[in-house]
Amino acid sequence: MLGDLDRATIRSLEQIASAGRIASAPVPAPGARPLKAGTLLRREWNGVLHAVTVAPDGFAWDGATYSSLSKVARAITGTRWNGPRFFGLREAS
Q1: Which of 47, 65, 73, 78 has the greatest CB tally within 10 Å of its CB?
Q2: Is 88 left (phi over 0), alpha (psi -120 to 50) or beta?
Q3: What is the mean pLDDT of residues 20-43?
Q4: Residues β-bridged to residue 43
C-alpha cells in the first residue's frame, strides 16, 4: 500500500515493542549496523587526522571516552554534528 512503512522498519518496530523497551531507551536506526568494540573510525578535519576507537562503554578519542559519536564530533569541531554522519557512517540527507 502506498505510504506504508517498509518491511524492515515494521520488523524493527515489532522487535522493539516485543522487547518492552521504554521510549527513552536508545533504538538503533533500521538497517544500522552496531559498531563492535575495537573498531577504528578515522576522519580528517582541518588537515588533522582524528582516530576514534569504539570502546565497550563509548568512544575513545584523544585520551578521553565519550558516550556518543556526536560528542566526539563536537569535541573535534567545536560545533554540533550528527556523529555517525560526521564519521561517514550515515549519508547526508
Answers
A1: 73
A2: left
A3: 73
A4: 50
Cell numbers representing residue 60 in the block: 575513545
Question: Could you read off the pLDDT of 30-39 as tens digits, one per residue?
Answer: 556 688 999 9
CA-wise closest residue to 88 among 29, 44, 36, 37: 44
Q: Output b/e per residue, 2-37; b: 16+ Cβ within 10 A.
A: eeeeeeeeeebeeeeeeeeeeeeeeeeeeeeeebee
Q: Does residue 93 sit in helix, strand or coil?
A: coil
**CB under 8 Å to 57, separation ≥6 — which residues?**
65
